[in-house]
Amino acid sequence: DPSMKAGATSEGVLANFFNSLLSKKTGSP
Amino acid sequence: TMQVEMLEKARELFRLCDKEEKGFITKLDMQRLQSELPLTTEQLEAVFDSLEQDNNGYLTPVEFSMGLGKFIGIEQYQ
Q: How far is residue B57 from each of residues B16, B25, B67, measured CA to CA in Å?
């Protein structure tokens, strides 16, 4: 079921997204 | 104060995505982040779709901060 697969991966992608943004923010002066 | 801090953070992160300060984020804005973030265009589209609540094509600061809140909730849960 592709929709189930998408649901399972979206949390990880979301975490990756927010973590990247957060590190970008802290990395800038 | 936790919530205030979270909203502040959400606003700052929102601004990183909304470069033109339109007040909302489009899918195109999201796709542009591909050059700055270690995510693929497809992943950024998936993020947009999962954050967007009403499917109008715009991601508002409210929707964005709700997504961040959910994410922080997940983080704390783990």
A: 18, 9, 16
Residue of chain A minimizing CA distance to B13: A21
Structure tokens at A13: 């992608």
Is B16's CB within 8 Å of A9's CB? no
Among candidate residues B54, B52, B50, B27, the one with its CA nearest the CA of residue A14: B50
Distance in Å from the first CA to the final CA of chain A: 45
ipTM: 0.87
Per-residue pLDDT of chain A (29 residues; tens, 9 = 90+): 555 554 556 788 999 999 999 998 876 55
**Across the A/B interface, how many CB contacts are shorter than 8 Å?**
47
* Rounded Cα distance, B52 and B54, in Å: 6
8 A C-beta contact, residue B24 and residue B18: yes
Q: How close does chain B come to A10, measured CA to CA in Å?
A: 7
A18 to chain B, any CB pair closer than 8 A? The answer is yes
